[in-house]
Amino acid sequence: MDLLWSAGKLLLVAFAVGSIAYELYSNRNRINFIWSVWSRFRIKMLFEVTVVLFLMACTVLAMWEYLPFMRWGWLNFFVSSGGNVLIAPVLEGSSSPLAFIRFLPPLFFVALLFALPFLAHYEEEIFRRGYHGWRNIIRQSVKFGLVHLFVGIPLAVAVALIGVGFFFACKYRAALRKITDVAVWERIREMEAMCADMAKVDVRVESSSELEDGAVLESTAYHTLYNSLLIMLLLVMKNFDARLPSRHWRFFLTTNPASGASRGGVYSFKKRKTISSPS
Q1: SS3 242
Q2: Based on the number of CB atoms within 10 Å of its own CB, is 270 exposed (0-12), middle (13-18) or buried (19 or more)?
Q3: Start-to-end Cα distance in the chain
Q4: How does pLDDT run across 58-75, given as a tens digit for each residue?
Q5: Cβ atoms < 10 Å from Cβ of 36
């Protein structure tokens, strides 16, 4: 039985490492995209993301304390402390008696930092692009949080991620509103409201591709910074052996690479209607 558990953990580590390696390899010709995301970082953005991170931590810890069933995630079957399938198995390797395995987590997290802009962009394209009305934003935020259950995070973290997704959506909407002509924006809102009244499905109303790209890039920058802060906190806590915090904080990484986000994988929600509006 122990052999089966060990084999299962080894497969999870291989999946995590392989996912990041594939992501970097498949985007080897788009290295400039990493800089285009990181160059958007500002001190104000760091402050905002830190506040969101703190609020999320408080939300998760409250549910963790008073709603014990919210602690469960499918990864608990393989890793006692649970977590993210792309993080927890690799993190456990840092305590291995084998030296070459102990070197794996630092290398993995460095590679993950380079992959984060691509991974965040995939999710922003799916959950943010074309959704401007508050009803659709809330719906997409709920999906954004709950879909992360597929990577093994506890239910409490998935619920808290709904709020994080709403924050990213607000940044996307604000960026699009800022760069869009007033008349075009009003036309987009009218079309979205009209379609929402006629159909009980998600309505995706897109303005010009160039404007949407700029807004998605803005929310991608927030998303990337959020995940980057979590990775750095994880490494610091692990380095200082902060046992209680690390067990909680390791759940918070939202990145979901190789889950099919950009390839039609786990995201199997209702079909969305896409309507183009004049740019």
Answers
A1: coil
A2: exposed
A3: 61
A4: 999 999 899 988 888 887
A5: 14
Contacts of 258 by beta carbon, 8 Å cutoff, 6+ apart: 15, 18, 19, 22, 23
SS3 203: strand
User: CA-to-CA distance for 23 and 163, rounded, in angstroms?
Assistant: 27
SS3 27: coil
Question: What are the tens digits of pLDDT across the range 140-165?
Answer: 999 999 999 988 888 999 999 999 99
Q: CA-CA distances (angstroms) from residue 146 to 139, 153, 163, 262?
A: 11, 10, 11, 17
Q: What's the helix, strand, coil split of the chain in %, to 5?
A: 75, 5, 25
Q: Where are the domains of the chain?
A: 2-172+210-269
| The two three-digit tokens of residue 47, written as one number | 């402050």
Closest-CA residue to 34 (of 127, 113, 123, 124)? 113
pTM: 0.77
Token couple for 12: 């999870």
